[in-house]
């Protein structure tokens, strides 16, 4: 049995405890989000491995989404199972549930898995909204394109880790970083910030680290 018998009243993170004759045999971590139950992590006692507890937890989480939907949350309609790597055999089980959808990596719109599989089978990078953007082989060189220009006020509010003192982190505008003075590094920073978008760029803390091995 699963001990989360009460429908969650708030969004957030929860544990579902699976007990058999009073013994804790499995536990899942889930997030209750607008529109979906998000499956974060699942663990179980190894001796129960042959009973496919992973599938049991997925069915329970689907049921939970349906229970919340029927209890008066009409937008609660989905189970989000996280990342899907087509070449990873251990992730193929996610495609056994139907209907399943994958998010397009460029437009973040959803496409039925059955329509995505042919592109995933023959491409290293698959774009579902624009199949012509798919790549059969890994990109050997960065895709050429203009470096995005960001407003001065955005750059002033984009911070990086300038140093540490004990347990305190000091931050400063990214334009003060030594990396900003290097043209190649500056271009990389701008491309990264452009991909994040102006709003998110001002909410993160950049940390420049190097592999010296």
Automatic annotation (TrEMBL):
* Residues in N-end rule aminoacyl transferase C-terminal domain copies: 10-103
Q: Which Pfam families match?
A: ATE_C (PF04377)
State the protein's name. N-end rule aminoacyl transferase C-terminal domain-containing protein
> PANTHER family given for it?
ARGININE-TRNA-PROTEIN TRANSFERASE 1, ARGINYL-TRNA--PROTEIN TRANSFERASE 1
- Tell me where the signal peptide lies: none
Lineage top rank: taxon = Eukaryota
Species this chain originates from? Lentinus brumalis
InterPro entries given in the database record: N-end_Aminoacyl_Trfase, N-end_Aminoacyl_Trfase_C
Molecular function terms from GO: arginyl-tRNA--protein transferase activity
What cellular component GO annotations does this protein have?
Answer: cytoplasm
